[in-house]
Design brief:
This protein has 179 residues and is mostly helical. Helix content is 64%, strand content 7%. Strands 1-2 form a two-stranded antiparallel ribbon. The chain is elongated.
């Protein structure tokens, strides 16, 4: 039933245009969620993770993303130089295993971590509150569902979907209006 309505059908832009808008929205939020870390955060994140267990670089990147609920995914270009710097400082060591370098803390690294280094995702959670990263994802999923109704729904289903979205918008603004 895709494109069953001629160029927007109801005086609106085409549904392909709406799908493109959803994709644009998604890319904006994805860029925001992969935000850049502050000075020293990659270092403290790596040390905090290696205090738990030895890991290779890709595991470190995945763990940081997971523990920050997707709000921070450091690039390999920031993690691997940090690992090299920490090794140069004698805080971590690298051992070759199955073609990968596995990093672990040295005694000096354990001393550094025990000195009160907190993981950056812990302070981010406190600042943003629970579920902050879930809002953009929920918005994108809502837009995708609306786009799907627009592409494949009947005129009556589209009308019902518009009413649901109008009500959702009003309720969201009412949340902001509360003290």
């Amino acid at each position: 039933m895709r494109n069953s309505y001629p160029m927007g059908g109801f005086g609106a832009p085409s549904f392909d245009g709406m799908w493109q808008a959803v994709e644009d929205l998604r890319s904006r939020f994805e860029k925001r969620t992969g935000s850049r870390a502050g000075r020293g955060e990659v270092r403290s994140a790596v040390l905090a993770l290696l205090a738990e267990r030895p890991m290779h670089g890709y595991q470190i990147i995945r763990e940081i993303e997971e523990r920050s609920s997707g709000s921070w995914k450091p690039s390999a270009g920031s993690v691997y130089p940090t690992l090299q710097l920490l090794a140069d400082e004698g805080l971590i060591r690298a051992e070759e295993s199955n073609g990968r370098k596995i990093y672990s803390l040295t005694d000096a690294g354990r001393d550094e971590v025990s000195g009160g280094t907190s993981a950056p995702w812990e302070s981010a959670d406190a600042d943003q509150g629970p579920g902050f990263g879930a809002l953009p994802k929920a918005g994108i999923e809502l837009a995708q569902a609306a786009s799907q109704v627009g592409r494949t729904g009947t005129p009556e289903q589209v009308k019902q979907a518009v009413a649901v979205l109008d009500e959702a918008r009003r309720r969201l603004y009412s949340i902001l209006a509360q003290d």
